User: Which sequence fits this backbone?
């Protein structure tokens, strides 16, 4: 007598991607507007220091967002295109008014397929702007450290502090510079 059990697990088509684009408040706000993205978390990635923190030491890490998305609605290539249009890919000092290593842009890839798509997308951006140098690197993903604990106020900052967030974004010149580079993208 054989008993066959069918373990049918509901499959969600969610995948995860990691991007650094300067201030994680702004990247979180931008990606959460994209259809097919279910959640975005702010944190750090790219460095070797364990448990980096915003007020403490995060040396060697980029401010990074973890993007959880439904690949049946939005593809990784779509995310890459969206990412490029929400950063300044030519700034080798940071992003907009935020300067320093942790504010540099980067794409973190988790496998060869993501690397190939990221390299193709970067090549397309470079072709579109032949007189400028795209400085955004494509890096191997290692680990993501979400902001947590006493610093949790950084998660959903744009929702929880809309006036302060909008003032910061405006005074930093982010949207003005994006308009200069990309034109109207929304």
Assistant:
């Amino acid at each position: 007598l054989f008993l066959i059990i069918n373990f049918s697990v509901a499959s969600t088509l969610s995948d995860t991607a990691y991007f650094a684009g300067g201030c994680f408040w702004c990247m979180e706000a931008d990606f959460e507007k994209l259809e097919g993205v279910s959640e975005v978390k702010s944190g750090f990635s790219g460095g070797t220091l364990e448990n980096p923190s915003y007020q403490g030491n995060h040396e060697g890490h980029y401010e990074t967002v973890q993007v959880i998305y439904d690949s049946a609605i939005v593809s990784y290539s779509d995310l890459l295109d969206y990412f490029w249009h929400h950063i300044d890919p030519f700034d080798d000092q940071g992003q907009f008014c935020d300067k320093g290593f942790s504010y540099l842009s980067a794409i973190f890839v988790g496998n060869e397929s993501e690397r190939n798509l990221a390299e193709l997308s970067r090549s397309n951006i470079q072709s579109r702007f032949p007189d400028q140098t795209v400085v955004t690197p494509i890096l191997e993903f290692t680990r993501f450290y979400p902001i947590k604990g006493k610093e949790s106020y950084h998660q959903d900052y744009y929702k929880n502090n809309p006036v302060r967030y909008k003032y910061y974004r405006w005074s930093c010149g982010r949207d003005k510079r994006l308009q200069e580079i990309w034109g109207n993208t929304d």
The first strand starts at residue 14 and ends at 21. The helical segments are 24-31, 76-84, 112-128, 157-160, 162-172, 174-182. Residues 112-128 form the longest helix (17 residues).
